[in-house]
Write a structure and sequence with these properties.
CATH class: Mainly Beta
Bound molecules: 2-oxoglutaric acid, fe (ii) ion
Number of strands: 14
GO molecular function: dioxygenase activity
Organism: Algoriphagus marincola
Radius of gyration: 16 Å
Number of helices: 3
Helix content: 10-25%
Pfam families: 2OG-FeII_Oxy_2
Shape: globular
Keywords: Dioxygenase, Oxidoreductase
Strand content: 35-45%
InterPro entries: AlkB-like, AlkB-like_sf, ALKBH3, Oxoglu/Fe-dep_dioxygenase_dom
Largest sheet: 6 strands, antiparallel
Strand order of the largest sheet: 1-12-9-14-7-4
């Protein structure tokens, strides 16, 4: 059996109804700096519109989708066609798969240019992800607040900070019961890159 490389004392951050595990150092500082620079320069970043409440609006961030050819990914009224894996993204995927003990077919990338870029409340619960999807989220660049709120009781909230070189796993019933977001922040001025690895069928 493969050893579980995830630190054994990592505790679930959710109080109930799903699992969220945070590991602050998937990559050491030098490696994380290197990945940030390569991804910023080499990823085919796009500024795309989505549909929200019947209106077409620009997303407050840049995005990209990489992964297995022939499988597209649809959310918020748009469909993204994946760009084939790059060497760097395959390297990061390998490390994440080892730690998460899982396999991923795609990665959705987000580039937050400053504190005014954000991602609103949502669940990653598209049918193409299957039931109880495992989502592995890797962050590089300035730390940003990541918030959860209970989908039914919207007053039940919690938040953590996602640091440079960190890994966050969302598992089990998490996407059924909890929404998440990256809020805008006046205090943040730097850039951040986030990668969410998914298995899309
Ligand atoms: O930038 C983040 O940490 C969140 C990304 C996210 O929730 C998503 O891509 O679905
Ligand atoms: Fe998400």
């Amino acid at each position: 059996m493969m050893a579980n490389l995830f630190p054994f004392d990592t505790k679930n951050l959710l109080p109930h109804s799903g699992e969220v595990l945070y590991f602050d150092s998937l990559f050491e500082l030098k490696k994380a700096d290197e990945y940030f620079k390569i991804l910023k320069d080499d990823v085919s970043w796009k500024h795309e519109a989505i549909w929200m409440f019947g209106k077409k609006v620009m997303q407050p961030r840049l995005t990209a989708l990489y992964g297995e050819e022939g499988v597209s990914y649809s959310y918020s009224g748009i469909t993204m066609e994946p760009v084939p894996w790059s060497k760097t993204l395959l390297e990061i995927k390998g490390k994440v798969e080892e730690l998460a003990e899982a396999r991923f077919s795609h990665v959705l990338l987000n580039f937050y240019r400053d504190g005014q870029d954000s991602m609103g409340w949502h669940r990653d619960n598209e049918a193409s992800l299957g039931p109880e999807p495992l989502i592995a989220s890797v962050s590089f660049g300035v730390p940003r607040r990541f918030q959860f709120r209970n989908y039914v009781d919207k007053k039940e909230k919690l938040q953590i900070e996602l640091g440079h070189g960190s890994l966050l796993l969302m598992k089990g019933a998490c996407q059924d019961h909890w929404e998440h977001q990256i809020p805008k922040s006046k205090k943040v001025s730097g850039e951040r890159i986030n990668l969410t690895f998914r298995l899309i069928r």
